[in-house]
Amino acid sequence: MANRSNRPSALNAPSAAAPSPEVDISGTGASSKVTARLPSGESVEVLLYGATVISWKSDGGKVENLWVSDAAKLDGTKAVRGGIPVVFPVFGPPPKDHATSALPQHGFARTSRWEFLGKSSSEDALDASSVKLDFGLYSSNLSDEAKKAWPYDFGLVYSVTLSKEGLQTVVNVRNEGTKVFEFQLLLHTYLRVKDISKTTVTGLAGVPYVDKVLDATTHTQSSPTLSITGEVDRVYASIPQDTTTVLEDGKPRFDVVRDNVDDTVVWNPWKEKAAALSDFEPKDGFQQLLCVEVGSVQGWQKLEAGDGFEGGQLIKSLL
Ligand SMILES: O=P(O)(O)OC[C@H]1O[C@H](O)[C@H](O)[C@@H](O)[C@@H]1O
């Protein structure tokens, strides 16, 4: 006779479990990475070195949206050429006579090992469509060299949220010391495009920019559309509209939506610069990438002791 008491009652029976996002940690040392995958197939990979997003696949996992060089170092020996390196606390070569002046180009965040702080995703069926990964970098984790070059107590929490809608990457900066500090912040996103000659950018009309290729002075973009026909390295500042759109063949491909940061750099190294970068492969890879880098790089963000700042982006793949 069947023992009825061993049977799960209707009340305790597991309901058809909603599939939830999977999160794995793989690799060792500087090559450790965190991978998250939604039940619908979208995925993101984040290297702990630099908390660098090195892959973001949308559309059920079928479309890779980020460009990463075939020669990129993924072993912690050099900032990753591609993906989304985090630039902090200085953008570009540091100015002389500033607290960041002893730091390397783009600061130390992209070359430091971050901690994985964990994931949050609701087990709720309604929310199985997103997963948030948090990464931390604190002054106590820095190399002695970086600590000496920038002797402030800070905490960075970088949140990478993957959803069907897109990829959100937001940095929270806290001044955990007693001294005021100034910083710049930028998310150096290498977007993968099909063909740079058919790629255009909108959302920057009427915005002043520093043209680092031409003459390092300020110009204003008069045309509504920017076409990329050669090396481009422009720092657009104080952009009134939140969204910059990348189009392929005139059709929107990515929306890059700024969140509490006002500036955007548009960069493509083109043939000669790509040839000169040892970690840039294939050499004609510049035809498949466009960097659209949101941040706060015009002037400095100032943080009083105990204060915080948060800024970042949402990138939507529009295929
Ligand atoms: O070679 P990296 O240090 O990674 O910098 C790559 C590029 O970053 C930004 O886009 C700057 O505006 C460029 O001037 C610089 O060349």
UniProtKB/TrEMBL annotation:
One GO-annotated biological process of the protein: carbohydrate metabolic process
Catalytic activity: alpha-D-glucose 6-phosphate = beta-D-glucose 6-phosphate
Binding locations of substrate: 81, 105, 110
Disordered: annotated segments: 1-35
Molecular function terms, GO-annotated: carbohydrate binding; glucose-6-phosphate 1-epimerase activity
InterPro entries xrefs: Aldose_1/G6P_1-epimerase, G6P_1-epimerase, Gal_mutarotase_sf_dom, GH-type_carb-bd
Feature: compositional bias, Low complexity: 1-21
Ranges in coiled-coil conformation: none
Listed EC numbers: 5.1.3.15
Entry superkingdom: Eukaryota
UniProt KW Acyltransferase keyword: no
Cross-referenced Pfam families: Aldose_epim
Gene3D superfamilies: 2.70.98.10
Family in the record: Belongs to the glucose-6-phosphate 1-epimerase family.
Function: Catalyzes the interconversion between the alpha and beta anomers from at least three hexose 6-phosphate sugars (Glc6P, Gal6P, and Man6P).
Name of this chain's protein: Glucose-6-phosphate 1-epimerase
Organism field: Mytilinidion resinicola
